[in-house]
Amino acid sequence: MCINDEKSFEKENVFGLGLPNTAYAEYFIGNSYLNPLTEMGKCPVFLANVTFEPGCRNNWHIHHAKNGGGQILVCTAGEGWYQEEGKEAVSLQPGTVITIPANVKHWHGAKKNSWFSHIAIEVPGEETKNEWLEAVDDETYNGLE
């Protein structure tokens, strides 16, 4: 369900908005928010609720790993998009689970007319690192229906 009103979205976003995602803002078009659900270093798996304002999306990126690694997205509120390089974009709604293998170029974010949240789960692995790449261009993003 598309939700473009922030107050209505807050009622659906059960894991909370969190704080502005300033640490990674340069890798996003639009505003995003981060609410860690586990404490990095104290739990072997890091989980965070990531919220995107309507039209917000992250850049293309790759979760590199020598072994294991990758990311899992559990969509919890609003509507968004996920796309792997060379594939069609996938529409995301609450309940959608996306498993992103390590070393796959992809992006994700909100639809143009909806707030969107997902829980991002960093899959443990060997020699993991995130590589941020180019922004998702407006032509590609605006062409999604």
UniProtKB/TrEMBL annotation:
The Cupin type-2 domain is annotated at 50-111
- The regions listed as transmembrane in this protein's record are none
Task: Tell me where on the tree of life, at the top rank, the source sits.
Answer: Bacteria
Q: Which CDD domains does the record match to this protein?
A: cupin_HNL-like
InterPro entries in the record, alphabetically? Cupin_2, HNL-like_cupin, RmlC-like_jellyroll, RmlC_Cupin_sf
Supply the name of the protein: Cupin domain-containing protein
Name its species: Faecalicoccus pleomorphus
Per the UniProt record, the lineage of the source organism begins with:
Bacteria, Bacillati, Bacillota, Erysipelotrichia, Erysipelotrichales
